[in-house]
C-alpha cells in the first residue's frame, strides 16, 4: 500500500529517521568546519615557525657582514625554487631587493607579524601574464614608484610575513605564500564533504529501502489485526522467520491469540454444557417437585421428596463448582497457592482414603511409592485430580475378567515425574474414545451405567495444564492406564 509523504512522516520510524538525518547533517557540517580550521591553524603555525627560522638565519648573516652580506644572502635565497618571500626596502618603502614585485598597501608600515593575509606579486609574473594575454612586448613596465602598490583588480597571491626594522631604518620582510595551505585546506574540505555526502546518501538509501520494508511489515500486521478485530480469531500475524523484533512481537501476539481462542472455546463449551447437560437434572428436579405436589401424600412422602431434591441440588452444585474450577484452571488462574509438593505423600494419602472403598467393591488397591518425588504445585488440586482418577479406576475395574486390581506407581524418567494409575478392567480400546474421555460431560457407552457427571477426567486434565504437565490415557492390555506427567523440580 503506497503512502504519501505526509502520511509517511506521521510514522514513528520516519520521524526518528528524519531526526537522525538532521543530527547527522549538523554533526557533519561541524566536523568539516572543525577539520578545515584545525588544518589551517596547524599549517599557519608551521609557516610561522619556518619564517622564524629564516629570520634567525638572516639575522646571523647581518651580524656577520652587515647590509651587503644580508642583501647577498637574500638575493641567493630569492632565486631558489620554491623560495619564501624576501624583501628589503628603504625607510620610504621603496623595494631594493628580493623576489617581491608589489605588495598590498600598508603591509610594511607596521613591524611584526601581519595581522591578516595580504596579497602580493612576485617578479616576472606580470611578464608571464602579459604573454598569456597576448599583450605587446612594447607595453611599458610599471614605474619604479609603483613597486610597493598592487594595482586595483590585479590578480595576486596571499601570504603572511614578519616585518622587521633594521638598525639603519631599512625594512626587511620575510614571508611565505599561503597557496599550499589553502590548497591543502580545500582538499580536506572537498574530501570531507564528499565522504560525508556519500555517507548521507547511503543513509538515505538505507532508510528508504529498510524503512519501506519495515512499513510494509507494519501494514501487514495492521491488516491482520483488522481481520482479527473483525471476529476472525483464527487469523495470525505474519512471521517472516528473520528472528527480529517484528517476528518476536508477532510470535508473542500469535501465542496470545491462540490462548484467547482456547479460552473462548472453553467458554463456549461451558455455555453448551450448561445449556444441554444440566438441563436433564433440572428437569428431573422440576418433575419430582410437580409429582409431589400433585395429589395427597403422607408427610413422610413429602420429606422423602425434599430430601431427594436436596441431594439432587447438592449434586448440581458440585457439578457447577467442578465446571468453574476447570474454567479457572484452563485460564491459568487459581486462588490457590503453589509450593513444594511431595507426590509420594499425596499418593499414600489418596490410597489410604480409597482403600475402604476399593475393599467394599472387591478391588485390590496397591500403591508402589519409594522415596520422595518433589514438584512445584498445589497439594489440594493434585489430590483432587488423583482422587478422581483412582475413583474412576475402582469403578471401571469391577468388570474385569480376572480379580479387579488398581495399581498406583511413581517413577522419574527424562526430566519428568510420571504418576500412573492402572486398572485391569475393559479399558477404552478406541483411540478416539480415549481422546474424547477428557472432555467435559463426555460419558462413553460403557460408563452410562455408572454414577457420575463426566467431569472427573476433565478436571484432572485442567489440573495438569495448570501445573504445566499433561494427562495421557494409554491402553493397559488389559485395562486403562492414566498417566499424570509433572515437570521434575530441580533443587539447587
UniProtKB/TrEMBL annotation:
It comes from Mesorhizobium huakuii. Residues 130-152 are annotated as: Disordered. The chain crosses the membrane at residues 12-34, 191-210. PROSITE patterns: HAMP (PS50885), HIS_KIN (PS50109). It catalyses: ATP + protein L-histidine = ADP + protein N-phospho-L-histidine. Pfam families: HAMP, HATPase_c, HisKA. It comes from the Bacteria. PANTHER family: HISTIDINE KINASE, SENSOR HISTIDINE KINASE YKOH. Residues 212-265 form the HAMP domain. GO terms for molecular function: kinase activity. It is found in: Membrane. The keyword Transmembrane applies. This is histidine kinase. Its EC number is 2.7.13.3. Keywords: Kinase, Membrane, Phosphoprotein, Transferase, Transmembrane, Transmembrane helix, Two-component regulatory system. Residues 133-150 have a biased composition (Polar residues). Residues 273-490 form the Histidine kinase domain. InterPro entries: HAMP_dom, HATPase_C_sf, HATPase_dom, His_kinase_dom, HisK_dim/P_dom, HisK_dim/P_sf, Sig_transdc_His_kin-like_C, TCS_sensor_his_kinase. SUPFAM superfamilies: ATPase domain of HSP90 chaperone/DNA topoisomerase II/histidine kinase, HAMP domain-like, Homodimeric domain of signal transducing histidine kinase.
Amino acid at each position: 500500500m503506497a503512502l504519501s509523504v505526509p502520511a509517511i512522516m506521521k510514522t514513528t520510524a520516519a520521524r526518528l529517521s528524519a531526526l537522525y538525518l538532521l543530527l547527522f547533517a549538523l554533526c557533519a557540517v561541524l566536523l568539516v568546519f572543525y577539520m578545515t580550521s584545525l588544518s589551517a591553524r596547524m599549517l599557519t603555525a608551521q609557516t610561522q615557525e619556518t619564517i622564524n627560522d629564516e629570520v634567525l638565519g638572516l639575522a646571523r648573516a647581518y651580524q656577520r657582514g652587515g647590509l651587503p652580506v644580508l642583501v647577498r644572502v637574500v638575493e641567493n635565497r630569492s632565486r631558489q625554487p620554491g623560495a619564501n618571500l624576501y624583501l628589503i626596502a628603504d625607510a620610504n618603502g621603496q623595494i631594493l631587493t628580493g623576489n617581491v614585485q608589489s605588495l598590498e598597501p600598508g603591509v610594511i608600515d607596521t613591524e611584526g607579524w601581519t595581522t591578516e593575509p595580504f596579497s602580493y606579486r612576485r617578479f616576472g609574473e606580470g611578464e608571464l601574464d602579459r604573454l598569456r594575454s597576448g599583450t605587446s612586448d612594447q607595453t611599458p613596465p610599471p614605474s619604479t614608484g609603483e613597486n610597493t602598490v598592487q594595482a586595483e583588480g590585479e590578480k595576486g597571491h596571499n601570504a603572511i610575513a614578519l616585518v622587521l626594522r633594521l638598525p639603519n631604518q631599512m625594512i626587511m620582510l620575510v614571508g611565505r605564500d599561503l597557496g599550499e595551505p589553502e590548497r591543502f585546506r580545500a582538499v580536506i574540505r572537498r574530501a570531507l564533504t564528499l565522504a560525508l555526502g556519500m555517507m548521507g546518501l547511503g543513509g538515505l538509501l538505507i532508510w528508504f529501502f529498510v524503512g519501506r520494508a519495515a512499513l510494509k511489515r507494519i501494514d501487514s500486521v495492521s491488516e491482520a489485526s483488522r481481520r482479527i478485530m473483525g471476529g476472525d480469531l483464527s487469523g495470525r500475524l505474519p512471521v517472516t522467520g528473520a528472528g527480529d523484533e517484528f517476528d518476536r512481537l508477532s510470535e508473542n501476539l500469535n501465542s496470545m491469540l491462540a490462548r484467547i481462542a482456547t479460552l473462548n472455546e472453553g467458554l463456549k463449551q461451558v455455555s453448551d454444557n450448561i445449556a444441554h447437560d444440566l438441563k436433564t437434572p433440572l428437569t428431573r428436579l422440576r418433575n419430582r417437585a410437580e409429582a409431589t405436589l400433585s395429589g395427597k401424600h403422607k408427610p413422610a412422602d413429602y420429606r422423602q421428596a425434599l430430601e431427594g431434591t436436596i441431594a439432587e441440588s447438592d449434586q448440581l452444585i458440585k457439578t457447577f463448582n467442578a465446571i468453574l474450577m476447570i474454567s479457572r484452571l484452563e485460564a491459568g488462574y487459581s486462588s490457590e497457592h503453589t509450593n513444594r509438593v511431595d507426590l509420594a505423600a499425596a499418593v499414600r494419602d489418596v490410597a489410604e482414603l480409597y482403600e475402604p472403598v476399593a475393599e467394599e467393591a472387591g478391588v485390590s488397591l496397591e500403591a508402589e511409592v519409594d522415596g520422595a518425588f518433589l514438584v512445584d504445585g498445589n497439594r489440594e488440586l493434585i489430590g483432587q485430580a488423583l482422587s478422581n482418577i483412582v475413583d474412576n479406576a475402582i469403578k471401571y475395574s469391577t468388570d474385569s475378567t480376572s480379580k479387579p486390581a488398581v495399581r498406583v506407581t511413581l517413577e522419574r524418567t527424562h526430566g519428568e515425574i510420571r504418576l500412573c494409575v492402572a486398572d485391569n478392567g475393559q479399558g477404552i480400546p478406541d483411540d478416539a474414545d480415549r481422546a474424547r474421555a477428557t472432555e467435559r460431560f463426555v460419558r462413553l457407552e460403557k460408563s452410562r451405567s455408572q454414577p457420575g457427571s463426566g467431569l472427573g477426567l476433565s478436571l484432572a486434565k485442567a489440573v495438569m495444564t495448570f501445573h504445566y504437565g499433561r494427562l495421557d490415557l494409554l491402553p493397559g492390555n488389559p485395562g486403562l492406564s492414566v498417566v499424570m506427567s509433572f515437570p521434575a523440580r530441580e533443587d539447587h
